[in-house]
Write a structure and sequence with these properties.
By secondary structure, this protein is α/β, with parallel strands linked by helices. The chain has a single domain, classed as Aldolase class I (TIM Barrel). It has helices spanning about 5-10, 20-25, 30-35, 45-50, 60-65, 70-95, 115-130, 145-155, 165-185, 205-215, 220-230, 235-250, 255-260, 285-290, 300-310, 320-335, 340-374, and strands at about 10-15, 40, 105, 135-140, 160-165, 195-200, 270, 295-300. Strands 1-8-7-6-5-4-3-2 form an 8-stranded parallel β-sheet. Helix 14 (about 285-290) links the parallel strand 7 (about 270) and strand 8 (about 295-300). The longest helix has about 35 residues, at about 340-374. The radius of gyration is 21 Å and the shape is globular.
């Protein structure tokens, strides 16, 4: 048994945060599934790297550009093709688990993150074009995205509610999921095959908070510097721990039991951005600290390899809960407004997603022009 499988025994699924035509065609994804991977997440940055790395997308790009002149349509065509193939590879996992596992996420155009109707329309388009039951449509959890999440789920489309940072926004996403389930029951629709996850970003929080702490450590007296150093690398996981408690309060409650009796699935927290950005923390810094039942951790290739080498995983998320209050109180004492940081990260996250989407379009434009000249 490898470490990915040991983590599964502790209640957490590991998903793979990468996709490429090479990964799919070479059999590498099948091997990852055999090693314990239970889902795949994608985004424009991942696709851009895949397109830059080789010519395997050229034929699809030629066909897409013959049908459409809009580069956004080319992006969608290439993403749909890979996600469809990945979903087929993971379909046995989905079937064996009766829909608990085996999902592949595909992202709506983040330029539409603040347009509810446009997001709903594109989510429906992606669902139809991929045409597989084991996909999730990634919708940013913006204010406009909340209603898009609800209406997309109401239509029976699985949703990965992404770019979540604050506990307050997590609560709103969970409420949107529950409302969608009630909507479907009122519509006379089943709820036992509707699935959703709530993607909470972790390491980006530490990147922001640690920068503030280190700036103060430089000029702080020894005792104060020691106190500040104890807070380094802990804000992201402390925030995730707060959100996990909200998850348990919501989905292990008597209120959810009514929906569970009709076949409803909990909306599991999915920990995203879990590669260590600071080398001082080591490659599995966000692994043990985020292991808990009913959770998912989506990891890039390097972190996945680090997990395999990590022979003794421990479920520390709940074990370290008593420390959370001290960490949050310590940040407040130092005048660090974690709430404001989380809100700002959410705004910048949408901007970064949109920039990645735009960059991918430009790469495809350049590649298509080169194909025409060839």
């Amino acid at each position: 048994m490898n470490s990915v499988q040991r983590i599964a025994e502790l209640g957490q699924r590991i998903w793979y945060d990468s996709i490429s035509r090479e990964l799919l065609s070479s059999g590498a994804l099948k091997n990852l599934v055999a090693q314990g991977i239970r889902g795949v997440t994608t985004n424009p940055t991942i696709f851009e790297k895949a397109v830059r790395d080789g010519a395997q997308y050229d034929d699809d790009l030629r066909r897409a550009s013959e049908k459409e002149t809009d580069p956004a349509a080319w992006v969608r065509a290439l993403m749909v093709a890979d996600v469809r193939q990945a979903a087929d590879i993971l379909r046995p996992v989905y079937d064996r688990s009766l829909g608990d596992d085996g999902y592949v996420s595909i992202e709506v155009d983040p330029h539409k993150a603040n347009d509810t109707d446009a997001t709903i329309a594109e989510a429906a388009l992606l669902w139809r074009e991929v045409g597989r039951p084991n996909i999730m449509i990634k919708i940013p959890g913006t204010a406009a995205g909340l209603e898009a999440i609800r209406q997309t789920l109401r239509a029976g489309i699985n949703v990965n509610a992404t770019l979540l940072f604050s506990p307050a926004r997590y609560d709103e996403v969970a409420a949107a999921y529950l409302a969608a389930l009630d909507d479907r029951l009122q519509d006379g629709q089943a709820i036992d095959r509707v699935a959703s996850v709530a993607s909470v970003f972790v390491s980006r929080v530490d990147t922001e908070v640690d920068a503030l702490l280190r700036a103060r450590i430089k000029t702080a007296p020894t005792a104060e510097a020691k106190r500040l150093q104890a807070l380094l690398g802990r804000a992201g996981t402390a925030n995730a721990q707060r959100i996990y408690q909200r998850y348990k309060d919501t989905f292990r409650s008597k209120g959810f039991a009514r929906l569970r009796a009709r076949g409803a699935r909990p909306q599991w927290p999915l920990w995203a951005s879990t590669s260590a950005k600071d080398r001082a923390y080591g490659p599995v810094w966000y692994i043990d600290r985020l292991i808990a039942p009913d959770t998912i951790n989506t990891v890039p290739p390097a972190t996945f390899e680090a997990i395999l080498a990590h022979t003794r995983p421990h479920a520390l998320l709940e074990a370290e809960l008593p420390q959370v209050r001290g960490i949050l109180d310590g940040l407040r004492r130092e005048g660090i407004d974690l709430g404001a940081i989380l809100d700002e990260l959410a705004v910048r996250g949408v901007e970064a997603f949109a920039a990645s989407h735009e960059s991918l379009k430009q790469v495809l434009v350049s590649r298509q022009a080169a194909l025409v000249r060839a």
